[in-house]
Amino acid sequence: MAVHHDMHAPVHDCADCPIRHRAVCARCETDELIKLEQIKYYRSYQAGQTLIWSGDRMDFVASVVTGIATLTQTMEDGRRQMVGLLLPSDFVGRPGRAVAAYDVTATTDLVMCCFRKKPFEELMSSTPHIAQRLLEMTLDELDAAREWMLLLGRKTAREKIASLLAIIARRDASLKLKAPKGAIVFDLPLTREEMADYLGLTLETVSRQISALRKDGIIELEGKRHVVVRNFDALMEETGDDSDGGFLV
């Protein structure tokens, strides 16, 4: 898939980047950032736009700067399953892999910090900080995938909804360099239909469980997307996870 510079995408300075402390470049020194700067560019996408189709050749890798995207896999009979979320600071693409494994679709308006793939792979071999950080992120992704298997296989509908809200809340707090405790306010990046698809529930069940969490004072909703969690510990108690929080963010 050919990707070109987007003249309409906002230009960011690495020093002011909102994901700098979590992204693949988090451990880079100044000289390493200069090298990355030479091979990076930004692309912006509108909500609903497909960034990458499964099977497309990828000549870039990227970090999500702002916005949310979904990873979707299509089965032979045409059925589609959402298999993952890409939140700010998440990495897209795999060095050494020629084609995309999943469809990637922007759920909200999205900005990506992209790196030309071949130069990025060359940098990995000469810049241990990049390779080390990418390994950490890959292992975190593996742990999160295992936790998600537990969520889909064993948790109740209420626990599934609470867990998804907790994941998004914790990531939002992390990006703001805040501890996930006390009151947390965030915008829900998924529609209820998308939540149902992602969690393996019906739309009616999702709506009913969100209403129940709201009625019980666990969350407050302003409109359909703006979520207020007055007590994060109370939300965590609804997830069914152990005391250390379970999910990685």
Secondary-structure element sequence?
A: HEEEEEEEEHHHEHHEEH
The shape, in one word, is globular
Mean pLDDT: 84
Quickly give the CATH architecture of the largest domain: Sandwich
| CATH level-four homologous superfamily name of the largest domain | Jelly Rolls
- Into how many domains do the coordinates divide? 2
Radius of gyration: 18 Å
**How is the largest sheet built, in terms of strand order?**
1-8-3-6
State the distance separating the first and last CA atoms: 29 Å
| Category by helix and strand content | alpha+beta
How many β-strands, per DSSP? 11
What share of the residues lie within helices? 25-40%
Strand content bin? 15-25%
Summarize this structure as a short list of keywords or feature phrases:
7 helices; Jelly Rolls; Arc Repressor Mutant, subunit A; four-stranded antiparallel β-sheet; 249 residues
Walk me through this protein's architecture.
A hairpin with a 5-residue loop joins strand 4 and strand 5. The chain is an alpha+beta fold and 249 residues long. The chain is 37% helix and 21% strand. It has seven helices and eleven strands. The chain has two domains: 132 residues, Jelly Rolls; 82 residues, Winged helix-like DNA-binding domain superfamily/Winged helix DNA-binding domain (Arc Repressor Mutant, subunit A), CATH 1.10.10. The strands form three sheets. The protein has a four-stranded antiparallel beta sheet. Strands 2-7-4-5 form a four-stranded antiparallel beta sheet, with helices on one face. A three-stranded antiparallel beta sheet has the order 9-11-10.
